[in-house]
Amino acid sequence: MNESQTRDKIRSAHTIVVKVGSSSLTSKAGLLDPGKLSRLVSALCAGIQSGARIVLVSSGSVAAGLRPLGFDSRPDDSVSRQAAASVGQGLLMAEYEKAFSRFGIRVGQVLMSASDTMRSSRYRNVHNTIERLLELGVVPIVNENDTLVTSEVKFGDNDHLSALVAQIARAQALVILSDVDGLYTAPPTNPHAVRRTFVKNAIRDVDDSSISGAGSAVGTGGMVTKIDAIRIATASGIPCLLTSTRNTGPAVMGDCVGTAFAPLRERVSSRRLWIGYASHPQGTIVVDDGAARAILTGKPSLLAVGTLGAEGDFSAGAPVWVADESGRRIARGLSAFDCDDIVSLAGKNTEQIERFLGSEFARPIIHRDDLVLVNGAQ
């Protein structure tokens, strides 16, 4: 699909997921900026009045709660950040409700965790809730449930969340708003950097070394996480647009701003997208050469007999890397066992496991439905 076709798809999208980050909603001091939020809402409402259905994935809850709790900057410990999110989420929603009400539009809060995208019953519930809100003319405002979420099932940033929400909502386009107006050939501070207007394949055609960098002082994402999110969305058949917050209006109206990314293929399951792109591996399972070759076919589960050991400290259900004997990471998956159990199971066949450890341990280390090849191995 070329640039013209991609932008036509974005322009004609009926349901659009828009993601906005903390830095686009807060002042330099880290306070929630009602003026920035109001301008964003005005631009979104122009798109809604033109017939688009908007799902807004909004960061800002932690940043909004910093000053009320007496923090001068984003705290390092997770408990303090969760406390800030608890206070800030209410303040954030109050500002959104006030801003959208000027246009006669109601908003609804949707707090999510990664498990909501991985379990079929929760996935359906989230989809049904968002769809019903849209049918009623309500703008769903989605954020990660930062108050309660644990590291094992955490998106880590709303860029990844927005890509999975786009799939859950069956959106026809994803718009990611940033501090810069698109993807550049080098960091924008480089005087020779040129904005790319179109990327045909976000997985193959974007050099990660040119987009590295940390997030803002009040947010968790950076350009790397935005490109990762775009890879998730385009891999599931959703065209994307990356641009700056000041281009929100033109973006949702389908104007030629920012960088457009073509969809790559038909949609795949949200669970596998989360495992492959958005999960944060807690450790590594090392496999022998025979198991590595089998995994690279994309078909079998990982069995104990092909496992050499485990690195790190993780529990059953945690996302992990799968690496071959040379240390090359070939896949990501959800471990069915704690790391200590994997060490005990390594190299044993089913008969040995049943005899010495019991039949409850005679199952795959990682089931094939929970195993996803990484890009370099595909």
UniProtKB/TrEMBL annotation:
It is found in: Cytoplasm. It catalyses: L-glutamate + ATP = L-glutamyl 5-phosphate + ADP. Pathway: Amino-acid biosynthesis; L-proline biosynthesis; L-glutamate 5-semialdehyde from L-glutamate: step 1/2. One of its GO terms (molecular function) is glutamate 5-kinase activity. Substrate binds at S59, D146, N158. Residues 283-366 form the PUA domain. InterPro entries: AceGlu_kinase-like_sf, Asp/Glu/Uridylate_kinase, G5K_ProB, Glu/AcGlu_kinase, Glu_5kinase, Glu_5kinase/COase_Synthase, PUA, PUA-like_sf. SMART domains: PUA. HAMAP family: ProB. This is Glutamate 5-kinase. It comes from Alloscardovia venturai.
